[in-house]
Amino acid sequence: MMDAVPMTMGQTFATFEYQVSNALLRIDDTLPRLLVLPQGGTAAGTGLNAPPGFDGLFCATLAEATGLSFAPSPHKFEGMAAHDALVEVSGALNTIATSLLKIANDIRFLGSGPRCGLGELLVPDDGLTSSIMPGKRNPTIAEVLVQACFQVIGNHQTITLAGASGNFELNVAKPVLIYSLLQSLRVLADSARVFSRRLVCGIDVDRERLATNVDQALLAVTALNPILGYDRVAQITATALRDRVTPRAAAIALGILDGDEYDRLVDPAVLARGSASR
């Protein structure tokens, strides 16, 4: 976790929002294949002894009861020997868990502190404190989501192996596949809901801390590279780091820029917009 160029907290949360939006799309993308059912395949997919039209009647009855557009599988051998649609759902959940794990950890770190951490986010108090250190608060809600994501990612490995164990026209590993998939659905939905309600909805930013961090940001001077050249900008950075001053103060002390020039050339808001500002 090393210093880099400035960005806005809005950009951070827009990244999270985009990940979650894609997560919803990934789930939606799996639904058409989940609605294709092999019922009526009977023995190994042959349809032996099934009444004529049973598959269509079954799907129509189920569709009427659920409001979902179930349809008979056109290839019942595949539907019984393999469960690729279920593995696909687990793959989507695995990707979502990966995204949520990143989001939860980023929020944990951005809210760390209050004195020795990053402390840029103010995380809602969950009412719990350390059993050893009085008053110490931990990001327990985020930690719950992190552990749920671990479970889903681990379950995906089980589901993948179970899905690959459909030998010829029968998959005897379907019980563990279904158990793991249902568990993934439940723990991911429950933990995401709790994370949203008890943490995300109450998050705020520490504006004073953010302002201090922006003021002290060493690598904002990257904007000066096209003007001063890499080596002179590196001199400013090294001086600011050595003398424990801001890059602005270092540039002035070195006689490279005056304050007005620095403020005009190194505008954190413009830097955060990047190429979009050009």
Automatic annotation (TrEMBL):
Domain Fumarate lyase N-terminal residues, every copy: 3-154
Species the sequence originates in: Caballeronia glathei
Keyword Transmembrane helix recorded: no
Keyword flag Ribonucleoprotein: no
Keywords: Lyase
InterPro entries the UniProt entry points to: Fum_hydII, Fumarase_C_C, Fumarate_lyase_fam, Fumarate_lyase_N, L-Aspartase-like
EC number per UniProt: 4.2.1.2
Protein name, entry field: fumarate hydratase
SUPFAM superfamilies, per database record: L-aspartase-like (SSF48557)
Protein family (similarity comment): Belongs to the class-II fumarase/aspartase family. Fumarase subfamily.
EC category name: lyase
GO biological process: fumarate metabolic process; malate metabolic process; tricarboxylic acid cycle
Domain Fumarase C C-terminal: from-to ranges: 221-272
